[in-house]
């Protein structure tokens, strides 16, 4: 439901709040669509000079709604295309992106941070990318961006083993700019967004374009997306999502 994304535009800062705390801010097709609409529209809105992304409740986001993945794996759905719009909008966004992250950031909750220009973590934040554990592959150009950011060894471990990276390590590895106490998170992220909003917008946009090739990232996303879609329809994926629903560990040794 689109009410699960709250949008506020104030003082040249467009704030996008994931507002589905009862479901750990798990992202649905409708939520992806509303986020994509907001980010795409900001490109043509001079009052939106900075975009701030945050989550309501005790978790940034549990990632994609697993129920939607499971429906695709079971052949009951063709899947969402709004997630593609969302991650491509991040890659093409010329506005500065600031993220405020508390609790767990799972899957796309972590990979979207690779597209943010400033990332503030609460001390309790944990970043994880358990794609392989769900019989899937990385997305959002993270197969390119993550190794470039933290090195192949660390990136491979994050993807292949899916273990959570605590805030302190994420900061040391270069996945974040700040780690602050939880009660200071929103204030710190807002202060950084306000500082960016006071900077010359044209210079910020030109700098970001020099530092990031959005179309190259979109091309990587498309390559990942083909593999992701194929993997969702495999026996491994069906076992992963069946096990999740049945609250048991998956057994991939029995999958041909």
UniProtKB/TrEMBL annotation:
It is found in: Peroxisome. InterPro entries: ClpP/crotonase-like_dom_sf, ECH/Chromodomain_protein, Enoyl-CoA_hydra/iso. Keywords: Isomerase, Peroxisome. CDD domains: crotonase-like (cd06558). It comes from the Bacteria. GO terms for molecular function: delta(3)-delta(2)-enoyl-CoA isomerase activity. Gene3D superfamilies: 2-enoyl-CoA Hydratase, Chain A, domain 1. It comes from Bradyrhizobium vignae. This is Enoyl-CoA hydratase. PANTHER family: ENOYL-COA DELTA ISOMERASE 2, PTHR43684.
